[in-house]
Sequence to fold (121 residues):
Amino acid sequence: MRELNSPDAITELVDAFYGKVLADDVLAPVFQGIDLPRHKPKIYAYWRKMLLGEHDAYRRNMIARHQALHSRHSLQHQHFQRWLALFLDTVDERFSGTIADRARRLAPMITTNLQKTLLRT
Fold:
């Protein structure tokens, strides 16, 4: 296992995670029609900001991006729970250390915040 402490490690995390997402029966339909190769640099930047503190890396409104996704494909609680399970599995399978621990703590908070905002629960 490696430390989740560099931009290269973030790239590995995101690529491995989205490999699982695109193969998943619950989440793959949500991502149909999204140009993921074009979108991934933004995802890398988001996680570099969240995990490595690179605040200049990501300057977009993450909630607004997910609201647009929600308007195209009605997201439900099952989508968020599956996203979280796959994300945590990916971290657990590949990474160790304090930043991996931070990712494990942040992911449920991100999921909860998105659900509250998008699903109005």
In short: The first helix runs from residue 7 to 22. Helices lie at 7-22, 28-31, 36-52, 62-72, 77-94, 98-119.
